[in-house]
Design goal:
By secondary structure, the protein is mainly alpha-helical. Helices cover 45% and strands 0% of the residues. 9% of the residues are buried.
Length: 77
């Protein structure tokens, strides 16, 4: 592997890792994806092991909107 190609793959794998939320244990999948991208191939689907290694980020619950207050009824004169 040429030094330039190796460095480009390393940098791309690092970008992929950061975008994935810096999960532990998925370095080979990131390296393989980066290699495929650099070599112009379509990236392979992640293996089941890689999917299990991904760390799910907690989802933030949306705050409920407060109910609108009813306008007071107008008195007829």
């Amino acid at each position: 592997m040429t030094d330039d190609r190796h460095e480009r793959i390393r940098q791309r794998a690092h970008e992929i890792w950061e975008k994935a939320g810096r999960p532990e244990g998925a370095h080979m999948e990131h390296w393989d994806q980066a290699t495929a991208e650099i070599d112009g191939e379509k990236p392979k689907k992640a293996s089941k092991k890689a999917a299990a290694a991904k760390v799910d980020k907690p989802k933030v619950a949306k705050a409920e909107k407060p109910a609108k207050a009813k306008a007071p009824a107008k008195k007829k004169a």
